[in-house]
């Protein structure tokens, strides 16, 4: 199963992601209902404490007969994490988050860290916005991109060992990157397909258009 989570960060134009949402299980995290209601896109599930959804959007959800998982406002998880946990309960193999980045840097970073949770549950996680695509690996990942596009690698563990990069302007072979190093920043696609592999650790991978 493939799941798309719409969360209440910054989404410049949700209509751009309509093709990505087709035939996917869509989970709306609380206030992100404003984006879906504006485009009349019915999600499969609304989840959260419902503290940021407007009365109008909540009414629209009810009119559309969208299933709702409501949680108390005093809770340990963010609405986005609740959406991720629900997706994992569905045994989703792919979880894409839209709207996971925004002006609240605490939420943005927390959502990036949710990729680690998804990875450790054996699923593929991704965050996308207008200019970035963020994913994570602890093994090997094939990544498609346009020649000249920027790709950066950041260690999420103290040390990432045995990194090999192919298809990029600055290749690596069996290299190590330690947390706090900027060695992996601003590499460039030399081919339309690149491969990132590693032997130990976890890498955050960010493909950027700008």
Automatic annotation (TrEMBL):
The keyword ATP-binding applies. One of its GO terms (molecular function) is thiamine diphosphokinase activity. Its EC number is 2.7.6.2. GO terms for biological process: thiamine diphosphate biosynthetic process; thiamine metabolic process. Residues 145-204 form the Thiamin pyrophosphokinase thiamin-binding domain. It is an enzyme of class 2 (transferase). It comes from the Bacteria. Keywords: ATP-binding, Kinase, Nucleotide-binding, Transferase. The keyword Cell membrane does not apply. SMART domains: TPK_B1_binding. This is Thiamine diphosphokinase. It comes from Natronincola peptidivorans. The lineage of its organism: Bacteria, Bacillati, Bacillota, Clostridia, Peptostreptococcales.
